[in-house]
Design goal:
By secondary structure, the chain is an alpha/beta fold. It folds into three domains: about 260 residues, Aconitase, domain 3 (2-Layer Sandwich); about 150 residues, Aconitase, domain 3; about 170 residues, Aconitase, domain 4 (Alpha-Beta Barrel). It has 22 helices and 27 strands. The strands form six sheets. The protein has a seven-stranded mixed beta barrel. A six-stranded mixed sheet has the order 7-6-3-4-5-20, covered by helices on one side. Bound molecules: alpha-methylisocitric acid (MIC) and iron/sulfur cluster (SF4).
Length: about 650
């Protein structure tokens, strides 16, 4: 049978289940990655599992998110993470070494392997032909302990790339065009495979920009074949031995297929406040800009920043606009320095940040009130940049660089010929990646006061009586459920403290009302919990007594995170039931354990005096987790 790429990799890793859409399968995970903002929880959970050493082929702990260190908290977290890495056999990428996805691509990714990461942009690795999937920290902890990763068999969509990119149009425009067509929920439950005659012309960093933002489509993963481009990239990184050819068989059948003609693309940007609100630069017009930010795991390869430096060379950033650059990795930053591009950026007036997530997650560089910022990043959810009333546009580096010079959104095609970008040898220097000792048994784990014990849920009761704490619209992001930014991110290892901010962007009274209610439910629309993989968006509501989320549909990672922490994810059966429900209604579900085994679950709305039926899509395995009050409880019960 002719297999697509997804089937080939899944077959090589299948531990249980059938590769038929709809069913649940378990796969072997070869590599894991964590970052510091989700990593502390992941490792606290891993410690609870009692393993002596990680059992994956390779596990890496990156420090890239929480690097501002305004007080002791982040530094405490870093010290804890470094000691855990040495203790359990995990590579440790030190702060300043770069953003997890960029560094993993450069130094560790291997075509055909599986990678599970506690960050939603882990699918960046698909640019190398890896099956790379984002997950909550607990799932990553299980994989590190040698356990399988469970997922619903995804549908596979092929994106057929034809034609050639016009000058000044780049990889970011390809993925923005897909977001325009498919929206932020168009990829939910799917793996997106890229193929067609134009794939061969795309470099690995370009492919990685596309697979990175597959996360914004809601896709489980995105995949490019492993071909000559992949071999060249790995050879340049001194890792040609990791290469293997991998491509879909001719005649492989896909669940869905679309064609994108690159010839017809133009420079695009996503408008506030969603990555799928995409328009052409011309449609948007010359919007004045207070800030331009170039970097993030989407667009901070050497080639991206070299292009920006070449455009900026000999010119000066517009007086109205602040330009900040956060290089994707130390490798990229060193290469920019060696070839002189860094000097060009500095001379033009760019503000150079360390190689980290930085402004992408609101860790500094919040733009002014009511301002407009243009960023080469992947998310522009309201308030994520740190300024609640700012508007963020997302574009590629060419648009960003010319816009920084003009002080307004500008079309790079008016800037003449596309420049020649010289190639240069890759600088390979892994001294900021600490290899764990052979035997970490004697390593002492260092816990500062910011590292608080992990809260656990209680087993599911027979009857749930809950107050509707909040009713939301569609596409609620985990940034809205559990915001990040310089003030809140340092509390990631302290669930009681971070819980105070749950749903703060939507309703500042939420945490207090939840605590007073004692037992709560959240009513959501479509694609509830899109965006980040942060399991804090489940853990912190759990801490506040949220027992269930009743939504029209869920984003994949958040659905699993809710289950992992014993919060019941329920589905509306009809839009009328959603319409009728009101905040503060008191809902009761009786005979829960029995009802969960049946087709529908009956809920009594005691406030309004009616009954309605809801559904769930929990597998028998997930039901067991929910009954136990979460995965850690279940693992403990099973010894
Ligand atoms: C993000 O881009 O939203 C983050 C910050 O990288 C998150 C992880 C987190 O919340 O720590 C993600 O994408 O999963
Ligand atoms: Fe970091 Fe932003 Fe990438 Fe998330 S999306 S990993 S915050 S650079």
């Amino acid at each position: 049978m002719a297999d697509h790429l997804t089937a080939k990799i899944l077959k090589e890793h299948l531990l249980s289940g059938q590769l038929r859409p709809g069913g649940e399968i378990a796969i072997k995970i070869d590599q894991t990655l964590t970052q510091d903002a989700t990593g502390t929880m992941a490792y606290l959970q891993f410690e609870r599992m009692g393993a002596e050493r990680v059992r994956s082929e390779l596990s890496v702990s990156y420090i890239d998110h929480n690097t501002l260190q305004g007080s002791f908290e982040n530094a405490d977290d870093h010290r804890y993470l470094q000691s855990v890495a040495a203790r359990y056999g995990i590579y440790f990428s030190r702060p300043g070494n770069g953003i997890c996805h960029q560094v993993h691509l450069e130094r560790f990714g291997i075509p055909g392997k599986t990678l599970l990461g506690s960050d939603s942009h882990t699918p960046t690795g698909g640019g190398l032909g890896m099956l790379a999937i984002g997950a909550g920290g607990l799932d990553v902890a299980v994989a590190m302990a040698g356990g399988p990763f469970y997922l619903d068999v995804p549908e596979v969509m092929r994106v057929n790339l034809v034609g050639a990119l016009p000058p000044w149009v780049g990889a970011k425009d390809i993925i923005l065009e897909l977001l325009r067509r498919l929206t932020v929920k168009g990829g939910v439950g799917k793996i997106i495979e890229y193929g067609g005659p134009s794939v061969a012309g795309l470099t690995v960093p370009q492919r990685a920009t596309i697979t990175n933002m597959g996360a914004e489509l809601g896709a489980t993963a995105s995949l490019f074949p492993s071909d000559e481009q992949t071999r060249r990239f790995l050879a340049a990184q001194g890792r040609e031995g990791a290469w293997r050819k991998l491509q879909a068989d001719a005649g492989a059948r896909y669940d869905d297929e679309i064609t994108l003609d690159l010839d017809r693309l133009e420079p695009l940007a996503a408008c506030p406040h969603s990555p799928d609100a995409v328009k052409s630069i011309n449609e948007i017009g010359p919007m004045p800009l207070d800030q331009v930010a170039i970097g993030s795991c989407t667009n901070s390869s050497f080639q991206d920043l070299l292009l920006a430096a070449t455009i900026l060379e000999g010119r000066t950033v517009h007086p109205r606009t602040s330009l900040v650059i956060s290089p994707g990795s130390r490798q990229v930053l060193m290469m920019l320095a060696r070839c002189g591009a860094l000097e060009k950026l500095i001379a033009a007036g760019a503000r150079i940040l360390e190689s980290a997530c930085g402004p992408c997650i609101g860790m500094g560089q919040a733009p002014p009130s009511g301002s407009i910022s243009l960023r080469t990043f992947n998310r522009n959810f309201q308030g994520r940049c740190g300024t609640a009333d700012a508007g963020v546009y997302l574009s590629g580096p060419a648009v960003a660089a010319v816009s920084a010079l003009e002080g307004r959104i500008a079309d790079p095609r008016r800037w003449g010929e596309f420049p020649d970008l010289p190639e240069m040898p890759v600088i390979i220097d892994d001294r900021m990646i600490i290899t764990p000792p052979e035997d970490g048994g004697a390593v002492k784990i260092i816990r500062g006061p910011n590292i608080r014990p992990l809260p656990l849920n209680s087993a599911l009761p027979d009857t749930l009586s809950m107050t509707v704490l909040l009713k939301t619209g569609d596409n609620i992001t985990t940034d809205q459920i559990m915001p990040a930014g310089a003030k809140i991110l340092p509390l990631r290892s302290n669930i009681p403290a971070i819980s105070e901010f749950v749903f703060a962007p939507l309703d500042e009274s939420f945490s207090q009302r939840a605590r007073e209610a004692g037992s709560g439910l959240i009513a959501g629309g479509e694609n509830y919990g899109q965006g980040s993989s942060r399991e804090h968006a489940a853990l912190a509501p759990m801490h506040l007594g949220v027992k269930a989320v009743l939504a029209k549909s869920f984003a994949r990672i958040h659905h699993t995170n809710l289950i992992n922490f014993g919060i019941l994810p329920l589905l509306f059966d009809s839009p009328q039931d959603y319409d009728r429900l009101r905040r503060d209604d008191r809902l009761v579900i009786n005979n829960l354990p029995d009802q969960l085994g049946q087709d529908g679950i009956c809920i009594a709305n005691e406030t309004q005096g009616y009954k309605f039926t809801v559904k769930h899509r929990l597998s028998p395995r997930q039901l067991e987790i929910i009954r136990a009050g979460g995965l850690l409880n279940l693992m403990r019960a099973k010894g």
